[in-house]
Amino acid sequence: MAGKLTEQVSTAAVLGGLAGAALGAGRGRRTAGLGALAGAAVLATSEYVARRRQRPDEIPALPHRILASGAVAAPLGWAAGALTRQPAARVALAAGGVAGGLGVRPQKVALGPAVGLALRPVVARRTPAQAAAVTVVAYRLAAAALFRDPQVTLLAERAAPDDLPFVVPLAAQGGYVGTDFVRTLATELDGDYTRDAADVGIVASLDELVGGDFYPTAVDPLVREFYEHTTRFALDIEPEWRAWVRPGYLLYRTALARPLGQANVPMNQRQAQRGVVSRIDTVDQPDGTRVRGWIRSYADDDEPIYVGIYTTYRRGGRGYVSVGFPLPGGSFTATLEPRLRPGGGLTLSSHGAHADAGHYLTVVDPDTGELTTLMVPGFGEELQVWSDAGELRADHAFSLFGLPFLVLRYRIRRKD
After folding, report:
1. How far apart are CA 43 and CA 11, in angstroms?
2. Does one domain contain both 182 and 279?
3. Over the stretch 250-299, which tens digit does the pLDDT of each residue have?
4. Closest to 167 measured CA to CA, from 17, 388, 404, 325
5. Most buried pick, 13, 22, 298, 355, via CB within 10 A?
6. Pair (123, 97) in one structural domain
7. Are 140 and 207 part of one and the same domain?
8. Do 120 and 51 belong to one domain?
């Protein structure tokens, strides 16, 4: 632990030194040098105190995180000013926009540019580095005052997988997930791989979910067949995006989703008309357990849409569905609580009455398999599947901090 603390403090000292030098730039080498020394000392001390006070399964204290944000912003602001020759006021506006965008929460996305705009008169005579640092710190302070519920919570650090049954700890080993992920996983698990397994479902049986107010016997037989024999059905998808999220999703899709080969949802109906191919790949392990990977891709070129590992588990007398979406070095897990829908439908929701339901971002240690997991309370989803006059329908709704941003409407038909 002492070695890790030394590494953390050393990294903070380097960052603080860069920030101090950037803040002192333009006033001579002596000022920049003194600024670097002061910045290194201040941020290293803050890092040391924050880490020493940090309790297990907690992130460092908010004041230190705000100070570190300002330290990151300063050299970036200096670089932006040097490369673009833009005045400090414009750098402040850009810094607010970037900081707000990283806040993810829609209200924070709007708050960032607002802070940058409000501070333009204040920072007009400052350097770009100073303008960026002041804007980011002011934004973080305002966001902390206005939004007190956390965006993420450190749930566990270096935990054993058995301690977190609601997490699916299957990570992509390279930088790309893609439609061959389950094949690669079979080699890692030393299991028997079956591509496009016949007559299997994303769950083995809905009976695994019985408990609480959920009774599988009350589920419509057609809905039950879809879950237990998913490969008998074909899907058509119609995305309905809220206008406010479209620009951010376009950036995310271009910069992350497509390069990663994961969570690449159609942007509009034109893209959805490329068609969807759905299959389940399985891995049968030596201990008798089966891994089920539901892979959805575009019909024209097999570009991945979703690669999800579907599992069920029981705790506290009830069952849950946990869907792990592999990422390089980790995974994003949606743990969903089952509920009966009027008319025999089935709802799976991340906003359950019990603590396990929710979303979890996990980093998997490649050497030990230990998990460091963040809970993401602001992300919500609900999947409803029901039968309408003998035809299956599904709505998959997503929200950020209570604001709906996407509904995927599925038409589900039996394959010919």
Report:
1. 9
2. yes
3. 888 999 999 999 999 999 888 888 988 999 999 999 999 999 999 999 99
4. 325
5. 22
6. yes
7. no
8. yes
Residues 397, 282 within the same domain: yes
Position 25 confidence tier, pLDDT thresholds 50, 70, 90: confident
Which of 248 and 356 is assigned the larger pLDDT? 356
Q: Which residue type occupies 294?
A: W
Q: Which domain holds residue 197?
A: 153-414
Domain ends where: 96, 124, 146? 146
Global pTM exceeds 0.90: no
Query: Does 296 lie in the same domain as 172?
Result: yes
113-134 pLDDT tens trace:
899 899 988 888 899 999 999 9
Six token digits for residue 37: 């020394």
Helix/strand/coil for 119: coil
Of 146, 164, 184, which closes a domain? 146
Residues 276 and 251 in one domain: yes
CB atoms within 10 A of CB 240: 14
**Beta partners for residue 193, in sequence order:** 283
Quote the DSSP letter at residue 154: E
Task: Label residue 1 by pLDDT band (50, 70, 90).
Answer: low
d(C-alpha 381, C-alpha 394), whole Å: 13
- Indicate the number of domains in the chain: 2
Give the model's pLDDT for residue 411: 92
Claim to verify: residue 36 and residue 120 sit in the same structural domain: yes
Residue 263 structure tokens: 């969570």
Q: Which two tokens stand for residue 394?
A: 């599904």
Q: Give dist(CA 365, CA 368) in Å, integer.
A: 6
